[in-house]
Amino acid sequence: MPDLHQPARPTGRCRAVPLAVAAAVLACLAGAPSLPALAQISERLDTNGDGFMDQKEAQDSALAKFQSLDQSRDGALSDAEMGLARGAANPLDKNADGLVSFDEYWFYFGNVFSAADSNRDGRLSPDELQSMRQ
Q1: Where is the EF-hand domain (predicted)?
Q2: What gap in Å lies between CA 115 and CA 119, rounded to an integer?
Q3: What is the C-alpha to C-alpha distance for residues 112 and 117, in angstroms, rounded to an integer?
C-alpha cells in the first residue's frame, strides 16, 4: 500500500491523463454512475469536512469502490467485475495477469490524484477539483 503521507508522483502514461479523464475517475472513486456536480464530489469524498479531499480520503473511497466491484470477494477485480469486454486491454492490470489487485487499482487512481494536486500539498482543493472539470 502506498505511503499516504507522500503523494504518488505521476509516471509514464499517467502524466498524460487528461483532466477530463481525471474528473471521471474521481466520479468513479465517489461511486457515482456519472460525473456529479462538484459539490457532490466534494461532499462524498471530503469525509472529515475540512473542505479538501486529501489522499487518505481518496484512498478510502477507492477501497470502498474496489470492494463494491469485487463481487467474488477474492481481493481482485476481473474484467467482468470492472465491466470490460472479455479480453479487452485493461490499463489498470500492470502485471497482465487478467486481474486487478487493489495495489494496481490505487496505483492508477493515486497517480490521477497526484496529477490533479497542482500545488503538491497532498490534498485537492475546490479550485483543483474545478480545474479538473474544465
Answers
A1: 104-134
A2: 10
A3: 9
Q: Concatenated DSSP letters for 30-56?
A: TT-SS---HHHHHHHH-TT-SSSEEHH
The C-alpha cell that represents 52 in the structure block? 479538501
Backbone dihedral region of 51: left (phi > 0), alpha (psi from -120 to 50 degrees) or beta? left
Residue 81 lies in a domain: yes
Whether pLDDT at 32 is above 90: no
Q: How far apart are CA 96 and CA 87, in angstroms?
A: 11
Please report whether residue 11 resides in a domain: no
Q: Do 61 and 26 contact (CB within 8 A), yes or no? A: no
Length of the chain in residues, anyone? 134
User: To which residue does cell 496529477 refer?
Assistant: 115
Q: Read off the pLDDT band of 16 (50, 70, 90).
A: very low
CB atoms within 10 A of CB 23: 21
Domain, as residue range, for 91: 18-133
Cell 483532466 locates to 19
d(CA 58, CA 113): 8
Domain count, the chain: 1
